[in-house]
Q: What sequence folds into this?
């Protein structure tokens, strides 16, 4: 296993070490694994779409072109947060690379969590080498400590680097400025982006019939909702689920206060309380525009906080209970004067 020394304090990391590790494949033809589920639906959210846009810029810098699997010289897995044993993607990835055992494999910097399932099953039957990059030390050490021997036996080498939105910060600025040019506005703006996708939902029903009916109605309502244009449905969702968004935002502000950080009351001309990374609340353009127009950002969404930090916003990154936020902060952001980690 290889590692990366912590970057110099108060300096943004670069992608030079990552590029050095994959320099042998400059100019290659690559099969880039689709980040979709088995039905073809895109995995991820607006933050992932930004990450993939940066990834595309990196491929261009490397001279790597996308081709069909049968014409490829290597396989690349885009950066992601989907390599968790509780998700479907590890099994999907195994299926998508199974027919190409002789093609080298590169997994771009991602987080992972495999507590009880050995991720070696993804690589079984492969003859070519694999480079698996991690974007933070916790995933890197957890996978290496628990499963390193089995992975090494299958030709998998574990390496530590940075989240590509951090190392590709130059690209982030270019993408946001080209898609969401800065507008002159009066007064400071606060963005509170609390994630709402992990809330538990419990409902008691008196009969199986009522459960079935409720499930059917929910499916029909969901189908009708997602048949609407994206911008229309995200605007509707922000109104319908306003209380849910406000609750998530309130919890973030409570944690901020409990950690000893207090934002001056009355200092913001406008406050937006919305999880702009979530597709149900935001289009990609709205996501970029909202982050670009904010002056202060409080969020437990990594890819709300990270691009805001790149743009020089005052950022409070609130740990969401999964080690990736603390890990990415310690690996790539610690020492930056505009970013504070709230554990």
A:
């Amino acid at each position: 296993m290889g590692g990366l020394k912590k970057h110099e304090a108060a300096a943004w990391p670069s992608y030079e070490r990552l590029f050095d590790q994959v320099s042998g494949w400059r100019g290659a033809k690559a099969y880039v694994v689709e980040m979709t589920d088995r039905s073809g639906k895109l995995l991820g959210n607006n933050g992932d779409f930004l990450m993939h846009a940066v990834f595309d810029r990196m491929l261009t810098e490397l001279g790597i072109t996308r081709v069909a699997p049968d014409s490829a010289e290597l396989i690349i897995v885009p950066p992601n947060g989907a390599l968790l044993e509780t998700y479907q993607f590890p099994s999907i990835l195994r299926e998508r690379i199974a027919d190409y055992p002789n093609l080298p494999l590169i997994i771009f910097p991602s987080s992972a969590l495999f507590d009880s399932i050995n991720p070696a099953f993804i690589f079984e039957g492969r003859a070519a080498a694999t480079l698996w990059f991690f974007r933070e030390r916790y995933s890197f050490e957890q996978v290496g400590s628990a499963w390193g021997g089995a992975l090494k036996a299958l030709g998998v080498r574990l390496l530590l680097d940075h989240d590509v939105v951090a190392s590709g910060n130059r690209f982030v600025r270019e993408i946001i400025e080209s898609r969401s040019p800065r507008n002159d506005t009066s007064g400071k703006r606060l963005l509170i982006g609390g994630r709402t996708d992990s809330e538990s939902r419990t409902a008691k029903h008196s009969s199986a019939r009522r459960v079935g009916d409720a499930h059917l109605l929910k499916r029909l309502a969901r189908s009708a909702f997602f048949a609407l244009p994206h911008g229309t449905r995200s605007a509707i969702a922000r109104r319908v689920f306003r209380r849910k968004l406000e609750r998530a935002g309130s919890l973030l502000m409570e944690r901020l206060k409990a950690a000893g950080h207090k934002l001056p009351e009355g200092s913001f001309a406008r406050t937006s309380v919305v999880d702009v990374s979530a597709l149900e609340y935001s289009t990609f353009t709205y996501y970029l525009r909202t982050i670009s127009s904010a002056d202060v950002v409080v969020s437990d969404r990594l890819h709300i906080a990270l691009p805001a930090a790149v743009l020089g916003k005052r950022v409070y990154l609130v740990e969401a209970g999964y080690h990736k936020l603390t890990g990415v902060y310690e690996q790539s952001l610690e020492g930056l004067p505009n970013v504070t980690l709230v554990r």
User: Anything to note?
Assistant: The chain has a mean pLDDT of 88. The longest strand covers residues 105-110. The longest helix spans residues 208-226. Residues 52 and 78 are 7 Å apart (CA to CA).
